[in-house]
Amino acid sequence: MSNYEDPTLKKDPESHLPPQATEPSAPPPPADVETGFGVSAITRRWRREDFLKRGSLALRGVALVFSLLAFIIMASNKHGDWKDFDKYEEYRYVLAIAILSTLYTGGQVLRHVHELSTGKQMIPRRTSAIVDFVGDQILAYLLISAASSAVPLTNGMRENNDNIFTDSSSTAIAMEFLAFLTLGLSALIAGYKLSIQSHTI
Fold this sequence. Notes:
Elements: H1 39-75, H2 89-118, H3 125-160, H4 164-200
């Protein structure tokens, strides 16, 4: 019996295995993908910080104007007899907080203008964020406290005598309320800046 085997009948032992699927290679990352440490990310951060600085400056500038108006209006609200603001504790409180707010916002505006014009920090960045956040909150609270304390007195006076004294008092109170709103918004920005400083440390 011949041992001859037809070579065409021989089967490769691996020929019955299914072809192996080749894993597709991962596509290269797009060229415009921006990482958190890229140049564009740093540029965006600088723009955001510049926007926050200018926003804080604008809000404190508006608060300075409102506080100064409240101070001037209340300080000049003297018309003789019972129509003198210094005869009422609530109005003296309004005047005192208006002066304090004017000094605070004026100092903050000068500091921000100096930093934006020179590009140099007068105090360390984190300390500046804490001072802005705490100072804005304290002054905002004092402003709304002074305005709220004088509202009942003014409303009671206007029920019997609606004159230039009560009108001036109402205007000064309104200016302090507007100063409170702007400093409240400034405190929100200061809080955001403080949280950014905490995360970057």
